[in-house]
Amino acid sequence: MLASIKSNHLQSESKKLGMMYFRVAIVLFGAQLLMGLIAAIQFIMPGFLFEIFDFSVARMVHINALVVWMLYAMLGAVYYMIPDETGMETVGVGLGKLAFWVLTVAVTIVVLVYIFVQVGSGSESTIWLINEGREYLEAPRWADIGIVVVVLVFYWNVFTTFMKGQKTGIMTVMVANLMALAGLYLAGMFYTDNISMDQFWWWWVIHLWVEATWEVFVGTLAAYALIKIINAKREIVEMWLWIEVLMLFGSGILGLGHHYFWIGTPEYWWEIGALFSALEPVPLVAMFVHVLYDWGKEQGIAEQEGHKNVMRNGPAMAWIVANAFGNFLGAGVWGFFHTLPQVNIYTHGTQFTAAHGHLAFFGAYATILIGMMYLGLQGAYGIKTLKATFKSKMGIVLIISGVLGMTVALTIAGYEQVLVERAELGAGWNAFFAAQELPWYVQAQTWRAIMGVVTFVGFIYLVWDLLTIGKQARLAQQAEA
Ligand code: HEM
Ligand code: HEM
Ligand SMILES: [Fe+2]
């Protein structure tokens, strides 16, 4: 990918900016995986890097890097698709580039501070300078405010371009959804001394991101990508998109209740959470059907007309199909498993949650964002048809096997915790530790670490492929011509 800076085929500055975001995203993804590996080893060898690189820090950087790389890839995807969807160059793209650098410097400083200041007491000044202490959104306050400014610049660019350019259904949903997505971030900036109230608002960001606004976001990406890759009919993908928007917001907003079972909120949240979160898998099935339906339909049309089916980007399409399956499995199935309060009272806070967290974030978001990177590369190198290489295949197979393997291992660990710690020993402090010393748990954690290594090897293939596939495909294309 780096090589593409020099030999960029993209005429659009907005697309170039999109590629800049993609590059940082992939670096942060790598950092995320390394931190995950350290934390996974610490599960089996608790003394590993103790007081040098503590579990609390490795875990924190792991999940914050996750959120940040995904946001980078999302910004990248938006800047990349704007010129295609609106028919014009992004307004204020110069300012957008400045914002990119400001954000990247801020992220670097925040991570360095996490690493250098690992322990110490919390105070008003540590909230401002070091760490806010809110899982997934730990950035200190100064960075919080900086992020709001950068996002305002971004939103202004998207909005003004949308208003001036052509208004497709995809862009309309994108613009409205981005406002909700960005606005929700503010809910994670309130301060109260009451931990229940703090958690109440914090969930607005985390849950309403991943189960509402981010889902709608990937719906728009899938719609755009399917048009680009397989020539899907715009009317069809946009119809699906509107249905998904309706269903996602319909179930996702009150589905929030499944995080309000045990944090001190009123008991009526049990019924609300149970009902609406149980409905959440429905739109995920719709998204799944959407991708496969469009693909099947395009194939049918191609056969009837007697020409070959259009497939302009093999690796991107593979990742998008993985997204359809992964979103349904990780969020829908693994989410549904523990979403009823009757079940959640046993599974809450066990490794079962981590199993769901991994498969859902990976399946619903990592997959399609990687797909968008391949789409970006195709544009950057001016490739007509991008075919999967051996490295693309190794990347996708190893990463998917690794994450599925980790999910199964964590599900087994969680199952053991439910049976031993919760049902049999009564969920006390001693029970918590007793359950973690039994062989089922220890073996499951060992398998998780092994499957983590498989994932990481897959990631190396992925990066290697992203760095080389464009040039290779262009040489092949030139040889043909
Ligand atoms: C792509 C969408 C989703 C993502 C990325 C996601 C991710 C996560 C993550 C990371 C957690 C752990 C949060 C923590 O640290 O406490 C979590 C918790 C939870 N998720 Fe999801 N989730 C998604 C969709 C769903 C859906 C559709 C359902 C229900 C059908 C669901 C049900 C739950 C429940 C019940 C919990 C609470 C677990 C506990 O008791 O601690 N999730 N989710
Ligand atoms: C090299 C591969 C990976 C390893 C070894 C790994 C390991 C870990 C470990 C040890 C934790 C802490 C769990 C705990 O506190 O009980 C964790 C948390 C988490 N990881 Fe990973 N991880 C890897 C890849 C990923 C990927 C690819 C994703 C998503 C795209 C991801 C998403 C998460 C999330 C959301 C959490 C928080 C879960 C929760 O609190 O329920 N990880 N990971
Ligand atoms: Fe949720």
Fold and architecture overview:
Among the domains are: 11-166; 312-481, Cytochrome c oxidase-like, subunit I domain (Cytochrome C Oxidase, Chain A, Up-down Bundle), CATH 1.20.210.10. It is globular, with a radius of gyration of 22 Å. The chain has helices at residues 13-44, 55-86, 93-116, 124-129, 141-164, 169-185, 195-230, 234-255, 268-279, 281-304, 314-337, 341-347, 351-380, 390-424, 429-437, 439-480. The chain is 78% helix and 0% strand. With 481 residues, it is an all-alpha fold.
Helix content: over 70%
List low-pLDDT spans: 1-7
The total beta strand count reads 0
**Biggest beta sheet summary:** none
Report, as a whole number of angstroms, the end-to-end distance: 24 Å
Offer a concise description of the structure:
Among the domains are: 156 residues; 170 residues, Cytochrome c oxidase-like, subunit I domain (Cytochrome C Oxidase, Chain A). It is built from 16 helices and no strands. The N terminus is likely disordered.
